[in-house]
Amino acid sequence: MSELTKHIVPLKGTMKIPGDKSISHRAIMLGSIAHGKTKINGLLTGEDCLNTIECFKKLGVNIDRNGDYVEIEGKGLTGLIEPSEVLDVGNSGTTIRLMLGILASLPFHTVIIGDDSIAKRPMDRVTIPLKQMKASIQGRENGKFTPLAVHGGGLNGIKYQSPVASAQVKSAILLAGLFANKETTVIEPESSRDHTERMIQAFGGKVTVDGLKISVPGEQKLTGATINVPGDISSAAFFLVAGSIVPNSEITIKNVGLNPTRTGILDILKAMGADITIQNLQNDVMEPYADITVRASTLKGVEIAGDIIPRLIDEIPILALAATQAEGDTVIKDAAELKVKETNRIDTVVHELKQLGANIEATDDGMIIHGKSSLKGAVVNSHGDHRIGMMLAIASCIAEGKTEIKNNQAITISYPGFLEQLESLKQ
Predict the structure, then answer these.
(1) What would the pLDDT profile of 285-300 be if each residue is shown by its tens digit?
(2) Among 20, 314, 334, 385, which one carries the catalytic annotation?
(3) Which CATH superfamily is domain 2-19+230-424 in?
(4) Catalytic residue at 88?
């Protein structure tokens, strides 16, 4: 349990956030199945990414880590070995869903599991298309839930019309498609984040993007690369909102990744009236990044819906908090995907913000927030969800009185040192 702030104080300072979680996962994975050495600078050292590293070590890959610098001796897909132990992803949905695409390509037996949260999260959105590619995947409810046993190899390339705009689904199929016998294509209903497509090309692979249709040729060979991981915009989002809603605040965040498929948070905050300045934009070959400065401002309610949802799905909890401080109503819809995250984030966000005095209600595919609310300190709970924990920590900065966060250790999954960094900004 963590106890936070009794008085509202401004947040001021310049800070650097940890490396992007999505990019870190993919760099480890592709570095492990590429040929030759891969060097990763700025890796996120949270539990999720460390679990990804441990999974590949069990598959026989040599990985050395010194802080956020990692070297991988890639073995290529055929150099991976059948693990003698179960692969445990912990709390990481990205690890398990993307790894299933790789395991489906391996001609031996693997078993993959996660924690209690992972055991409740549906895997059939990935296992169904992988089975169509002729992978053998067994698990509870016909492969819908972990533990999952996989025997892969000999995959057929497919053309898959995805029912959801999910980077995890798309990535699992594309990773399997790299080693299938012919081209594999995924067609999405809306664009999802494109880190996998960019990363495959960084490792010398081929990807074709035609609108919502993404294709990879089969039987590819990847080559080790040097990957510089920018700061995670999903982590920056908490401080962007904090700087907007805590009176008299000004925060500069250095080297934030600005992948266009991830910048929905900036678009919505600007639409709400946030005072945000982007400086030193660098259009890196793999991922663009820049410095972002945010200053306290008066926000107004907006509608968040449609094709912007995949570009900010992980930021909805903190946007809901921002909406409690905006004038007027904010409506979030088309976000049913929130129900299959670490928690049902619709219900969890609504419940916890209500505990603090917010006027908020759940809908089938989102929520409605009536602003502006004066928040009061209370006992709240992350429910083991890192993004809920961080959102509640930011809420404590504007809540009058003491806020206690139960299960706040979940924050280390994606952001080690978050609470300490937040405290350091208080002036």
Answers:
(1) 689 999 999 999 999 9
(2) 314
(3) Enolpyruvate transferase domain (3.65.10.10)
(4) no
